[in-house]
Amino acid sequence: MSAIDSGLLSPVTTGHDELVDDAAFLDAAIRAEVALVRAYAVVGVAPASAADGIVDALGVDGDGRGAGAGRPSDRIDLDRLVAASVAGGNPIIPLVGLLRELVPAETRVWVHRGATSQDIWDTAIMDVAARAVAQVRTSLAEAADALLTLAEAHVGAVAAARTLTQHAVPTTIGARAAGWSRAVERAAARLEGLKFPAQLGGAGGTRASFVEVTGSVEGAQALVAAYAGVEEAPAPWHVDRAPVTEIGDALVAALDALGKFAGDVTTLSRTEIGEVSEGEGGGSSAMPQKQNPTEAVLIRSAALRAPQLAATLHLASALAVDERPDGAWHAEWPTLRELLRLALGSSAHAAHLAAHLRVDAAAARANLASSGGLIVAERLSIALAPLLGTAAVAAIVADVGSGADLADRVRAAAGTAGVEVDVDALVDPANYTGVAGALVADARAAHDARAAHAESAPARPASSETAQPGPAGTRPEGGGR
Q1: CA distances from 438 to 181, 267, 397 (A)
Q2: Which residue, 112, 122, 130, is CA-closest to 33?
Q3: Ranges for the Fumarate lyase N-terminal domain (predicted)?
Q4: Which CATH number covers residue 187?
Q5: pLDDT tens per residue across span 382-425
Q6: How confident is the model at residue 234 (pLDDT cuts 50, 70, 90)?
Q7: How confident is the model at residue 233, as a pLDDT?
Q8: Do 348 and 316 belong together in one domain?
Q9: Which of 162, 324, 379, 444 is catalytic?
């Protein structure tokens, strides 16, 4: 079976798909099935030998990537699984049969015991999402660090702030970059707060099958805890899809922040502006002079696709009827995967772009001066209107717009009114950047405070970047599902 999507139509994700490809989801589903057997062994229902036999047969080691060479999914004929998934509407039904073929005959009764397909597939989806989100957070942190370094390097570099596409007042390149950094860090913090709960509800979400297998309600509760680790959900969430929509919303917020950064880069790198450029810009097939802001363009493409994907997740959540959705659940799978894929690719590109972005402070100064000094018109209005009157200030602005020198016109107006004014200081854009410098310093202080807190805080369990259930139902520190 040939791949339909190798990234040809989605260059922003090319090279960043491994964590969310089909094999990754299959690995996660196998890990979930193994975790269930281990949980049965932990609560004393299944013999430890059965759990160990299944672990060995399926090749799932401590981190779930696969014992020895290869991955757990390597033991499954993916084409066969895909073809067989159509009849039941999900891949877990045929997967269970394939797994039972692989394990010792005496252990087969424990594979998928009491579980429903949605239990395993939802757990697998959360597993994949946790690993992908961990990588996105790493890339976002790298991007934020690079942008903050950029901000500090250009803390006093004055540039034109633009509102509604037009020059407004002076700002600094540092303040602009600090704004990018803060937004990216905020998005990373939101991802840090996500939960990736396991699913174990049984056929109708009552866990009746687990009560039956373990012999009591308490036994079923213990099983759920052993299976889910510290990522245990307070209740089955077969039709409460908040875990999925919350991940989707946080991913969109991250792509929003990256899209803003990338959008500014595409604007500021325009030939007629030229205040920034990509360190490794792309070329053109027809115009050899061009150095396109390719990474920024790719990031923007992801940011533009993301919101509609999140909307689909919310639509599916709202239509999660009965005790298992009839199609809404299925609609989530490729949608969430695509969001994760876009976030992985765009965050990696953003980290690279931020680290290699070039600033042309001279171009920024030239653009700043292009209005003949009227970039400080707001300041003139505030400072001079009480002294000269609004009509006089309006006349100064009009004259400068017609080619007059700003400083000369202010001196003349002040002299006529008999007013003492430090004209050179008043018309210097560098003297009208407000708290721009403080914004950079505050961004650094907040960044360092977060970093110090992260270092001093106990390791967050069940972030599930790599940890998975240990042998016979135990979980290594930081493990969880």
Answers
A1: 14, 25, 30
A2: 112
A3: 28-305
A4: 1.20.200.10
A5: 999 999 999 999 999 999 999 999 999 999 999 999 999 999 99
A6: confident
A7: 81
A8: yes
A9: 324
Tell me the C-alpha distance between 466 and 468, whole Å: 6
Exactly one of 284, 358, 370, 460 is catalytic; which is it? 284
Tell me whether residue 379 is one of the annotated catalytic residues: no
416-419 — which CB contacts under 8 Å span 24+ positions? 417/387, 417/388, 417/392, 419/387, 419/388
For position 279, what pLDDT does the model report? 79
Q: Which two tokens stand for residue 64?
A: 């779930």
Residue 179: its pLDDT value, please?
Answer: 98
Same domain, 251 and 147: yes
Give the range of the structural domain holding residue 56, as residue numbers without chain letter. 8-115
Which CATH number covers residue 63? Answer: 1.10.275.10
Total domains present in the chain: 3
* 8 A C-beta contact, residue 186 and residue 449: no
State the alpha helices, DSSP H only, in 113-241.
117-153, 173-192, 208-214, 217-228
pLDDT at 333: 97
Q: Tell me if 95 is assigned to some domain.
A: yes
Please indicate, yes or no, whether residues 100 and 123 belong to a single structural domain of this protein. Answer: no
Q: Is 381 a catalytic residue?
A: no
